[in-house]
Amino acid sequence: MGTTGQGQSGQDAAEVNGQAVRGRSVVGGMLAGLRLTVTSGVTGAAVAAVVAGVILERVPVFLTGGGVLILLVLVGFVAGRRSPGPGDPPVTRTALARIEDLRATSGESADVPVDFRLTVAPDDRPAYRVNINEQINLVDIPVYRPRGTAVVEYRPDEPWEVRIVTRPTPEWSRRAEEAEIDSAPESTLVEKPGMSEGSWCVLVLFTFLAGAALVVLLFRGELFTSGDDEASSSKRPPATSSASSSRTFTTSTTVSGPSSSLLVLGRMRQTATDLEARVGTSDVTAIVIEERRMEIRGDSARPPGETVHLRMLPYELFPALVHEARTTLGVSDPKSWRIDVTPGAGTGAGPRVRVTVTGKEGTARLDADATARILDRRPVGEAAEAG
Predict the structure, then answer these.
(1) Residue 363, beta-bridge partner list
(2) Bridge partners of residue 367, in order along the sequence
(3) What is the pLDDT of residues 19-70, one digit of tens each?
(4) pLDDT value for 357
(5) pLDDT (0 to 100) of residue 194
(6) Which 3-state string (H, E, C) describes the chain?
């Protein structure tokens, strides 16, 4: 859903413009890839020429390689200083989106990186899936929940460019509250076309090595002869062996003073950072969090798949889980609460977060995943039976 304020003719014109922009983007991407390939290959050849010139004591080869490297640096400097030409600002439209899932990652500031999986529902095209990453303020995180509705801006010509509008207009806020958006199929997922960053890195490395190999082949006779002479006079270094040992550890800390509850915003993450510095590792096998106490346990012999990474947990979302457990599981006056974080049971499964509350009625608990999404609830009575 969304409003564009355009008729059919305006939508057709936008579609034509979008196709033209996509065509220009493809041509521009091909030219950029060609420039990158040629530059990396020439750089590899120049570096190999410098090294070969030093080994063979050939001054012309050394000067040629060094001159090409200097020329490349100057060209890159001039290209970086040149201001880009004027261009049309990108056209954006407003729409509603269904939050399929979200995952908060660690952050050291008030804005936390959050990975969103959305179903965007524009007015002028079918709904589609998209994955984005947004910086969300800690205060606004509780607003965004799975199966909720958010206001977004997207580019019709590049639908994978989506941004969440954190302060929508009153009209869009009203529409978001009233809207019910169905999930789009996974097959409608749109992604930025072209090669990924990893593919570009592989291409750059390959062309760099190809350029260097070309120069090495030109001087292979002299280089390999010199290498054989040096190898015949070298001695094999003595073999060494080392032994590794594993260790287990348990450490805890208690906070004190006014407002000493670990539910205070930022207190859990700071306490976990202090415990990590104390033990010298961020991989642990269990975490226990209570009102004023945090404990971690670990075993260095455990593989990474059987541990929990201290820095990757969404501590900022844990207070909301505690509030949910204290108010919805049948414990009218909770006396204590406790959070247990342990590695997932299956291969590739994320950490499991269990919140337990205790009161005069008994004990209740809920389980959540590493994104603080609730997976199971055990009210009073059921938690004792499950046991």
Answers:
(1) 358
(2) 354, 376
(3) 444 555 555 556 767 777 888 888 888 888 888 888 877 888 888 888 888 9
(4) 93
(5) 59
(6) CCCCCCCHHHHHHHHHHHHHHHHHHHHHHHHHHHHHHHHHHHHHHHHHHHHHHHHHCCHHHHHHHHHHHHHHHHHHHHHHHCCCCCCCCCCCEEEEEEEEEEEECCCCCCEEEEEEEEEEECCCCCCEEEEEEEEEEHHHHHHCCCCCEEEEEECCCCCCCEEECCCCCHHHHHHHHHCCCCCCCHHHCCCCCCCCHHHHHHHHHHHHHHHHHHHHHHCHHHHHHHHHHHHHHCCCCCCCCCCCCCCEEEEEEECCCCCCCCCCCCHHHHHHHHHHHHHCCCEECEEEECCCEEEEEEECCCCHHHCEEHHHCCHHHHHHHHHHHHHHCCCCCCCEEEEEEECCCCCCCCCEEEEEEEECCEEEEEEECCCCCEEEEECCCHHHHHC
